[in-house]
């Protein structure tokens, strides 16, 4: 008989879909279910319907945000002010605690993915590494010493502002900041900015010049702040755009400008910056995002 003592129910809440997993790690997934992300009541009810049929010892939740991660806050475990319609103020952790009475690990989706890379994937043994996702939103998970970097609230590096390309007057999609990075290069931003979803843009279209410019600005800031040993980039917008990575490396190296100790870093971008799951790193899947 297979022991269930270490079985964990993992829940990933994404902007367009949620994934529920049952297992002990990426090499031992016993069950998996995909649920569309719609309104909170229907989405969480569908997730609970899946979990109700499983036996597990603990729950790990990795969710889109922003989230309240301060365990002392009255709204710990909830989604805070988010661009996802209807989800602001949605309680996640306490709802699951009341229903299942199990220990719950709770983090942002990008921090969960970054932690998974450090534990099982391409960043094992590294002191500092980052995971960046570009999809419905833009998020950055930064890990140092095995823990997500966090102050009084978790960082929102996807919402940093960067210098705009000359002549680019797009106001930005983000309803909080307008032309922050998420407001310029996320999936909804690309669709509004260019009139069609990113997946329909021509492979070599000039639209990607702006994308590379804006994303390179975020990467410049991330490198100058933390110089992560490795930066993995994933998400639906860039998943099929491997050709953009050489351009990103060139642009980032130019932006770093030969400054100080970053001279060596800029010369190592083939190893330091790549798509999540790239064969270059032989990374395992970061979908197992339990914390």
Morphology:
globular
Secondary-structure-derived class: alpha/beta
What's the β-strand tally?
Answer: 10
Number of DSSP helices?
9
Q: Show unreliable segments.
A: 279-291
Helix content: 25-40%
Radius of gyration: 19 Å
Order of helices and strands: EEEHEHEHEEEHHHEHHHE
Q: Can you summarize the main beta sheet?
A: 5 strands, mixed
- The overall pLDDT, averaged over residues, is 91
Fraction in beta strands: 15-25%
Strand order of the largest sheet: 3-2-1-4-5
How far is the first residue's CA from the last residue's CA? 27 Å
Task: Describe the protein in words.
Helices cover 30% and strands 20% of the residues. It is α/β, with parallel strands linked by helices and 291 residues long. The strands form two sheets. Strands 3-2-1-4-5 form a five-stranded mixed β-sheet. Strand 4 (58-63), helix 2 (93-100) and strand 5 form a beta-alpha-beta unit. Helix 6 (207-226) packs across helix 7 (244-256). The radius of gyration is 19 Å and the shape is globular. The two termini are 27 Å apart.
């Amino acid at each position: 008989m297979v022991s269930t003592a270490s079985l964990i129910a993992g829940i990933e809440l994404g902007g367009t879909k949620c994934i529920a997993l049952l297992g002990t790690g990426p090499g031992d997934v016993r069950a998996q279910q995909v649920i569309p992300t719609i309104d909170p009541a229907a989405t969480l009810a569908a997730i609970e319907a899946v979990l109700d049929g499983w036996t597990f010892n603990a729950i790990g939740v990795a969710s889109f945000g922003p989230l309240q991660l301060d365990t002392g806050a009255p709204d710990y475990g909830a989604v805070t002010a988010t661009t996802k319609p209807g989800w602001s103020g949605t309680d996640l952790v306490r709802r699951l605690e009341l229903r299942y009475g199990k220990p719950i690990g709770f983090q942002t989706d990008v921090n969960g993915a970054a932690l998974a890379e450090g534990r099982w994937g391409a960043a094992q043994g590294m002191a500092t590494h980052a995971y960046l996702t570009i999809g419905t939103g833009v998020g950055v998970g930064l890990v140092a010493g095995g823990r997500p970097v966090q102050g009084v609230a978790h960082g929102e590096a996807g919402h940093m502002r960067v210098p705009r390309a000359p002549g680019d007057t797009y106001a930005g999609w983000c309803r909080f900041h307008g032309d922050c990075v998420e407001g310029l290069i996320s999936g909804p931003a690309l669709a509004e900015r260019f009139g069609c979803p990113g997946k329909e843009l021509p492979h070599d279209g000039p639209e990607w010049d702006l994308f590379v410019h804006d994303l390179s600005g975020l990467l410049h800031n991330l490198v100058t702040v933390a110089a992560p040993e490795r930066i993995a980039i994933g998400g639906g917008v860039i998943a099929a755009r491997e050709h953009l990575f050489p351009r990103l490396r060139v642009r980032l190296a130019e932006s770093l400008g030969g400054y100080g100790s970053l001279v060596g870093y800029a010369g190592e971008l083939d190893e330091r910056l790549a798509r999540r799951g790239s064969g270059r790193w032989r990374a395992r899947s970061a979908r197992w995002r339990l914390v």
